[in-house]
Design a protein that fits this description.
This protein is of the alpha+beta class and about 160 residues long. Helices cover about 35% and strands about 30% of the residues. It is elongated, with a radius of gyration of 18 Å.
């Protein structure tokens, strides 16, 4: 079921620093399903694990297709510490998935590529606008607030 649009102009109700984590994979060899399918299947259980744990620090995420070969997830986190804690926790699903990727690399073939980017956005240095949209992106992760008439991106950024 599709979410209903929120009438008018809204902005993300993000207070403080925003941590944006992009993580994805690229299928380098389509025929090597035995290499890329396990990588593709590793992400949903991690997202489920994080979503069920209110203290994980994950605020929200969105799955995206970048091209027929590239799939990625945009994640919003409370803090870089919580993101790094999850990545290093031996009791969580990330560590076995990372081990699998490293095993595939050592076995050769470059059948699947993997990447991530982390952005620490200081308070007051991020801006968003959603017009007649359901909650989306950062706004879906942290909630939205109405934007007054005539308020511009420069105003929301404090410029």
């Amino acid at each position: 079921m599709s979410a209903k649009p929120i009438p008018g102009r809204t902005t993300a109700a993000a207070a403080g620093e925003v941590v944006v984590f992009l993580v994805g994979m690229r299928i380098n060899r389509f025929w090597a399903v035995h290499r890329w399918l396990p990588v593709l299947r590793a992400m949903p259980p991690m997202l489920k694990e994080l979503s069920r744990d209110e203290d994980s620090g994950l605020l929200g995420y969105q799955l995206l297709i970048g091209s027929p070969r590239t799939i990625y997830v945009v994640q919003y986190w409370e803090s870089k510490e919580k993101l790094l804690d999850y990545a290093a926790d031996p009791g969580k699903l990330h560590r076995p998935a990372w081990g699998m990727l490293n095993r595939f690399r050592r076995q050769g073939g470059a059948h699947v590529g993997f990447w991530h980017e982390t952005y620490l956005v200081p308070a007051g240095r991020h801006e968003s606008i959603y017009v007649d949209m359901p909650a989306h992106g950062l706004g879906k992760a942290v909630g939205v607030l109405p934007v007054g008439h005539g308020v511009r991106a420069a105003d929301r950024l404090g410029a």
